[in-house]
Amino acid sequence: MKTIRDLTVKNKTFLVRVDYNVPIKDKKVTSDLRIRASLPTIQYLLENGAKQIILISHLGRPEGKPNPEFSLKPVSDVLRKLLPKTTISFCPLPNDNGEIKIPENTKIALLENLRFNPGEENNDKTFIQNIVNDTHADAYVQDGFAVIHRAHASTDAIKNFLPIYAGLLLEKEVTNLDKITKNPEKPVLLIIGGAKVEDKQPLIDKFTKSANQIVVGGKIAADGYKSDNPKIYVAEDYDEDSTGKKLDIGPLSTAKVAGFITDAKTIIWNGLLGYAEDPAYATSSTIAAEVIGEHQDATTVICGGDTTGFVENLMENHPNLHYSLVSTGGGASLEYLLGNKLPGLEAITK
């Protein structure tokens, strides 16, 4: 896979696909973790003499129309705080066939939400070609791992117009996911939670051969998941609410999961173990996250949107926790682990 380390950066303009699909409330970003995750690639380009960097991303699902609720403008405010010595401009996408206007002396430009135009999700060649032409980009950097499983204009059609290189975040994601799928250090532990068994069963099936232990918790277990495979441990006790609804795995199951984590050398966690939106039922997920984060001599990968969000929030208050990878791609990481083709990644490798 070609990365930005394989190209000459000096005096060139780069169009960079990032993942700034971040939570925003009252026009302010409430978590900047995904923005900070993009900084290594941006700083590498700056330090190696890039002429200009144009950042592009989507936010939410505005259904192909401009919607102030999904504007990326608040992200530009965060970028200015994170890169105070760099000139950063926010540039709206033009209406109809207008040209993107980037102010002079701008080192970094963040364009408005790509999904304000239906061309992004329609994988429209003309849409992305216009952006390439207007920005005068010399090369394309794909650093939005969370969207590489989608055949959109900024992941797929772009290959027709610019050479594509992987950014450092994308490289980190792929390197760690390769490590746990192709040559994992034993023992291997897969922890599965969440609500929909149909989403998780393919992952369980995929790892049945390579994993030494598989744990099933969350609503899947509470709803009665069963397996005859001796590798698969299904939670056996639960914390319940006043109506008897099982909302978290219980202390016995939590203790067993903690023991499995301590014994493992490779750990993959996808899906929360309880109804963690309610702090009263976040106990098992918190304990699992802490034990994994303190297990410094294991390769540890956290994937799945709810799980990574939970762990990211925990890390803000517990900076001592460390993970090999807290994946920025929910659906993308799952597709990668299952060995499915990812359009955005194929565009790079080819």
Q: How would a crystallographer describe the biggest sheet?
A: 6 strands, parallel
Poorly predicted spans = none
Rg of Cα set: 21 Å
Q: If you consult CATH, what is the topology of the largest domain?
A: Rossmann fold
Number of domains: 2
**Number of distinct helices:** 12
Can you identify the CATH superfamily of the largest domain? Phosphoglycerate kinase, N-terminal domain
- CATH architectural name of the largest domain: 3-Layer(aba) Sandwich
Helix percentage range: 25-40%
Strand content: 15-25%
Span of the ends, CA to CA: 8 Å
How much is the average pLDDT? 93
| CATH domain class name of the largest domain | Alpha Beta
Shape: elongated
H/E topology pattern: EEEHHEHEEHEEHEHEHEEEHEHEHEHH
Strand pairing plus helix content: what structural class? alpha/beta
How many E strands? 16
Topology record:
Elements: E1 13-17, E2 24-25, E3 28-29, H1 33-37, H2 39-47, E4 52-56, H3 73-82, E5 88-91, E6 108-111, H4 125-135, E7 139-142, E8 164-166, H5 168-182, E9 188-192, H6 197-207, E10 213-216, H7 218-222, E11 232-234, E12 238-240, E13 246-249, H8 251-263, E14 266-270, H9 283-293, E15 299-303, H10 305-317, E16 325-326, H11 330-337, H12 343-349
Parallel strand pairs: 1-4, 1-7, 4-6, 5-6, 7-8, 9-10, 9-14, 10-11, 14-15, 15-16
Antiparallel strand pairs: 2-3, 12-13
